[in-house]
Amino acid sequence: ADDAVAGVQLLSAGEDPQPGRCAYHIECMENIRGIHLHNECLESANYPVTVDLKLTNAVERFDYRIEQDFLGFITSLTISADWAETSLSLLQYTTRLQKLILSSNNIEKITGKPFYFLNNLESLDLSNNQLTNVDELFQFELHPNKLFKLSLAYNRIEELPGDVFEELTSLIELDLSYNKINNINEEPFSNLTSLETLRLNNNLIKNLNGAVNNLHILKNLYLRDNQIQNIDVQSLKIITHLETFDVSRNQLEKINSIVFLRHWKHLGGKKICKIILSDNHINVLPNTSKEISARYTRSARPYSVDVLTEVDLSNNEISDIEYNAFQSLFKMISLDLSRNKIIDFVVNADDLEHVKYLNLSGNYIVRLYFESFSAMKNLQNLDLSHNYLDYIPDQTFTNTYNLKNVNMTYNEIAIIKNLHIKMFHPEGGVLDLSNNGLNQLKIPFGQGLRLTILKLHSNNISIPSLIDLIHQTDLMTLDLSKNMIIELNNTSLRLPVNLLSLDLRNKIIDFVVNADDLEHVKYLNLSGNYIVRLYFESFSAMKNLQNLDLSHNYLDYIPDQTFTNTYNLKNVNMTYNEIAIIKNLHIKMFHPEGGVLDLSNNGLNQLKIPFGQGLRLTILKLHSNNISIPSLIDLIHQTDLMTLDLSKNMIIELNNTSLRLPVNLLSLDLSCNMIRSIGPSTFHRMGHLKTLRLSRNKLSTIEYGAFQGLTVLQNLDLSFNEIKFLDSKLLMDLKLLSVLSLRSNGMLYLNYKSWYGHKHDLKVFVDGNFLTCEWLVSALNNFNNGFSKMRPAALVVPALGNSVEGIPCVSENKESEKLTDISSKSLMDDDRLLVTSQKILEAVREQTYYLRKYSHIWPSIFKDTENEPDKKW
Questions:
Q1: Which has the least CB within 10 A, 353, 422, 526, 864?
Q2: What's the rounded Cα separation, in Å, for the pair 589 and 623?
Q3: Smallest Cα–Cα separation from 548: which of 533, 568, 565, 576?
Q4: CB neighbour burial string for 823-837, b if at least 16 within 10 angstroms, e if fewer
Q5: pLDDT by residue (tens digit) across 437-489?
Q6: How far apart (Å, rounded) are the C-alpha atoms in residues 449 and 419?
Q7: What DSSP assignment string belongs to 753-774?
């Protein structure tokens, strides 16, 4: 492309003819000027040319003085502008155009015949404009034209004349959604004989009046959110061909059985037929005539039609479903009848033979009948929530062996003495009986096979021994939270030995259970109780415990024997208790992959983990406590500790005796304290630290040697402090620093000279300060020229005010001139000389290193050369 062109990108190149060799993506602002394609791509049959042009913020006469030859190569054009009226005269030259996007331009009127010469146009997008009249707009030179996709969605079209789409006989997809169309009586679609998808949703249509009856190959019809009150054979003759029929959110009160009829044998090829009638006012589902139903389904079965059906009748007013209402549907796999007024669900089970998903939630069902479920061998997901069931009948689910999810929440089931679900899906099943008022549950031997997850939360369970699950050997997860359990003893839990996860968030005071019952438990949730003490006998057999949640209790210490046998803890949450002092952790060892201990929000002020305790602890969270003397947090022996969070405490001062932390620590968070000073050598024992957070403190100055010993530190956060002036020489100990945040300090000046010879590029976030634009320009220039390693940056780009490359700054004034000495300007000659000298010395140092490294090798090489003069080296 021409040197004057910005934003022109050749997507691929090569010497052999390739489909992408002459493929261009070009982006322009306001207008199109001076664009030229490579000579080899001009008028060459060997290299197919595709030009994707995007024009943003187009001016009113963007087409002025455009080279017509270039326009003739454009294949895809996207224009973004703000036009009330346009003739789009540019398009008369874009004869190869295949895709045109003019969406979101506020166009109210398009004059003339702008698309007339676009004989190759395949896709046209005019959505999100203000068009009200499209009459005579779609006229083309050639018949038939190639346009197969047209979008007029989100406009203000009210009327469609009968001949508006007369020439678009090749159209496959038409989108007229989100307009104000109120009638289609003139049959504007009658000539669209190739149309497969028609979107008329979100308009004001009241009646179809046969407007689509000539669309014999229409597959998808979207009529959602209109005002349609009736659908019958006369108004919609082609309904039997539709794969997707969405007439949800209309005003239908009755439906004709024709709505469910399809020519099933014409819908093969693993298609899913979707019939969506939700959010209407339908009150009855009538029987389908056996004669009419047989006419469609009988011819389909011999052909083994591979088509599935999904029906959505949710959120209607259905109270009566006649026995053969679904007789004409072929291989129905999903039926949604939720949020209706159904009292009895009694239908022909044979019509539901293939159903995998059945939603009956939000009705008035008080009883389930075997005859409705008897043939549902494929049922996987059953939702019966928000009904009035008070028991589970003994025969209903006799033949259902593939249930994956059964939701019976929000019913009135108080007692279950037999589940009457013999078997769940081979991959396992989930049963949710929460919010029922349940107080007793017994699943006998031979029932509930393959049940893996049982949810019983938010019931009235007060005596846990009445929940008898001893025979549920496949049960992995049990949720008993939000019940009324107060006390537990060694006979309370009748649970299977293989249980892995137990949630007991209740009102428990003492957690005393038979440890053998929980031998295999990996996840135990005891949060939100009233526990004040932990007992060894309850945890003694939990060798597999990995996740323990004891948060929101009333613990004030950790007993010395409780976790003696737990060697696999990954996460221990003890937040929101009342633990003020810990002199011994009493957790000897965490999981081999490492463990996390969270003691935040406890009022903790002292913690000591002696040698031999807390092995393999990698992350320790102590934020939001009362720690004011950091030396009382003694972690010197925690050699596996990688991350420590001490944020949101009350630390005021740090010195060389403050931190008793392990040398291997990688990340330390001291943010949101009240630190005013950091003395020399504070971090001198922490030679492996890579991340240090000191944001949101009260720091105003940095002392010399404050960061001594942090030789591998990479990230330092000093944001939201009170540092007005900073000299980079105070951070000279940080040789590997790569990211420094100085945001929102109210900083007036940053001297970065000591970073001229920094080993790596250093990104410094400086937004939220008062650094001058002159300083910022100088710093950016010195970085770009290679004289400085410091690159200013901004995390938040300002919407208003002065900025340079998206970094905020303040304009120069007399006061800032006093604060900015000669060193704040561009590097002087002696500074540049110093930097150059440093680079030369560094290069010489490297060369000397390699010479010394290999100097002992050369004598032996010379000796070998003398001994074997003919050998080629």
A1: 864
A2: 22
A3: 568
A4: ebeebeeebeebbee
A5: 999 999 999 999 999 999 999 999 999 999 999 999 999 999 999 999 999 98
A6: 11
A7: GGGTT-SS-EEEE-TTS--BHH
Q: Which domains, from first to last, does the chain contain?
A: 274-388 (3.80.10.10)
Q: If you write DSSP's letter for every residue of 436-493 in order, what string do you get?
A: S---EEE--TTSSBTEEEEE--SS----GGGEE-TT-TT--EEE--SS---EE-TTS-
Q: What is the overall mean pLDDT for the chain?
A: 88
More confident residue, 23 or 177: 177
Query: For residues 825 and 440, which has the higher predicted lDDT (pLDDT)?
Result: 440
Please state whether beta strands 667-669 and 643-645 pair in parallel, antiparallel, or not at all (unpaired): parallel
Cα atoms in the Cβ-side hemisphere of radius 13 Å centred on 627: 35
Task: In whole angstroms, give the CA distance from residue 35 to residue 29.
Answer: 13
Q: For the chain, first and last CA: distance in Å?
A: 49
* Statement: residue 851 has pLDDT above 90: no
User: How high is the pLDDT of residue 571?
Assistant: 98
Q: What is the pTM of this model?
A: 0.82
> In the block, which residue shows the tokens 């549950």?
441
**DSSP-assigned letter for residue 796:** S
Q: How confident is the model at residue 177 (pLDDT cuts 50, 70, 90)?
A: very high
Residue 873 above 90 pLDDT?
no
Residue 382 CA to residue 742 CA, distance in Å, equals 56
State the sign of the Cα–Cα–Cα–Cα dihedral 197, 203, 206, 209. Answer: negative
Q: DSSP letter string over 211-263?
A: TTTT-TT--EEE--SS------TTT-GGGGG-SEEE--SS------GGGG---
Integer-rounded Cα radius of gyration of the chain:
38
